[in-house]
Amino acid sequence: MVELSQAGGGLLRKGFAGDTLNTAWYARACIQPAWSVDYFTALGDDAMSDEMIAFFEEAGIGTNLIRRIKGKAPGLYMINLRNGERSFSYWRDNSAARQLAADPDRLREAIEGTDVVYFSGITLAILPREDADTLLAETRRAKAAGKFVVFDPNIRPRLWASYDVMHTTISEGARSSSLVMPSFDDEALHFGDDSIEATIHRYRALGAPNVLIKNGADGATLNFAGQEDFVPAETVKEVVDTTSAGDSFNGAFLAKYLETKDAVASACFAVKVAARVVSEHGALVAKDKLGL
Ligand SMILES: Nc1ncnc2c1ncn2[C@@H]1O[C@H](COP(=O)(O)OP(=O)(O)O)[C@@H](O)[C@H]1O
Ligand SMILES: O=C(O)C(=O)C[C@H](O)[C@H](O)COP(=O)(O)O
C-alpha cells in the first residue's frame, strides 16, 4: 500500500508499506546477501505501482512474481498516532492486491519455487472468499511438502466480513503453518485469550508446532516444539510510532532463524530491530538506522 505517515507541522510523508511487505523488507535488510526475498502480490499499471516496483528493487526485494493488473492501483492507508500507539485509516477496497491469489497456477508455481512462505491474516482478509481458500490450500500443500510456512494472524476486524469468518479463516491459516507469530494484545482482545499460555495452547492445538508471541514492551515468548523461552524487550527512550513493530520483529527473526535455527538468539536479535523501528515514524525504517 501507499502509506501516509506524520511528518510534523500537519504534513504527511508518502511511503510504501503493508504488513507482508514490511516483513519482507526487514527480512531483506537482515538476511545474508546470498539469500533471496521475493514479494508475491498484485499491483496496477499506474505511476504509483511503477514507483513501488522500483522501490522494492532498490531494496533488493525480488519483483518477478508481482502481477500487474490493467486499470488498477495500490491501496492507501494513513497512520494516526496517539502517544506513539498507531491506528490506521484505509482506502483499499478496490486495491490491485485483492486479486493476488486470483490465478491459482501462478500462486502454486511461486510457492513451489521457494523454501519459506510468509503470509498473514491481512493477506487472507483482503481476498475474496474463494481466493482465500485457494491460498490456504496452497499453504497446507507447502507445509505437507516440508516447506517452512510462517503466519502472523495480524487481526484487523474491520477488514473481515464477520467475526466468525475472521476466527475460522485465521484458525485455518494457523493450521496450515509451521510457525505462528501473533501479537498477544490482539489475540486477547479479539479471541479472548486470558494469558500468553492460552494463545500458545490454542495455536499448537490447531497444529502449529512452533508459536512465537510478541507482547509489545513486555517482550516475546517462544514455544518451539514444546520448548518454552522468554526474551525481554529492549528499553526504548521514546516510542515515536509503533507501526510495524510486529512486522519488523518477524522479518528480523526469520532472517536470523533461517540461517542459525537458534530461535532464542533470533528473538534477541529481533527485539533489538523492533526497538529501533518504534523509535522512528512510518513502517519502514532505513537500514542504517537499524543498528545492524
Ligand atoms: N514500547 C516498546 N518498547 C520496546 N520494544 C517494543 C515496544 N513496542 C513493541 N516493541 C517490540 O516490538 C515487538 C512487537 O511489538 P507488538 O506491539 O507486540 O507487535 P504489533 O506491532 O504486531 O502489535 C515486541 O515483541 C517488542 O520486541
Ligand atoms: O494494517 C495493514 O493492513 C497494514 O499492513 C499496515 C501496517 O503497515 C501494518 O499493519 C503494520 O503492522 P504492525 O507490525 O502490526 O504494526
The major beta sheet can be summarized as: 6 strands, mixed
Classified by CATH, the class is Alpha Beta
Q: CATH homologous superfamily name?
A: Ribokinase
Helix-strand string:
EEHEHEEEHEHHEHEHHEEEHH
Query: Structural class, from secondary structure content?
Result: alpha/beta
Q: How big a fraction of the residues is strand? A: 15-25%
Total domain modules: 1
Bound molecules: adenosine-5'-diphosphate, 2-keto 3 deoxy 6 phospho gluconate
Which CATH architecture? 3-Layer(aba) Sandwich
Estimate the mean pLDDT confidence: 96
- Contiguous uncertain segments of 5+ residues: none
Task: List the SSEs and their pairings.
Layout: E1 2-6, E2 12-16, H1 19-30, E3 42-43, H2 47-59, E4 67-68, E5 76-82, E6 85-91, H3 104-112, E7 116-120, H4 121-126, H5 129-144, E8 148-152, H6 163-175, E9 179-180, H7 184-191, H8 196-206, E10 210-214, E11 220-224, E12 227-231, H9 245-260, H10 263-277
Parallel strand pairs: 1-5, 3-4, 7-8, 8-9, 9-10
Antiparallel strand pairs: 1-2, 5-6, 10-11, 11-12
What does this structure look like?
The protein is of the alpha/beta class. The protein has one domain (20-39, 99-289): Ribokinase (UDP-N-acetylmuramoyl-L-alanine:D-glutamate ligase, 3-Layer(aba) Sandwich), CATH 3.40.1190.20. It has helices at 19-30, 47-59, 104-112, 121-126, 129-144, 163-175, 184-191, 196-206, 245-260, 263-277, and strands at 2-6, 12-16, 42-43, 67-68, 76-82, 85-91, 116-120, 148-152, 179-180, 210-214, 220-224, 227-231. The strands form 3 sheets. A 6-stranded mixed sheet has the order 7-8-9-10-11-12, sandwiched between helices. A 4-stranded mixed sheet has the order 2-1-5-6. Helix 2 (47-59) links the parallel strand 3 (42-43) and strand 4 (67-68). Helix 1 crosses helix 9 (245-260) and helix 9 packs antiparallel against helix 10. The longest helix is centred in the middle third of the chain and has 16 residues, at 129-144. The protein is globular. The two termini are 26 Å apart. The model has no long low-confidence stretch (mean pLDDT 96). 2-keto 3 deoxy 6 phospho gluconate binds next to helix 1 and helix 9. One of its GO terms (cellular component) is cytosol.
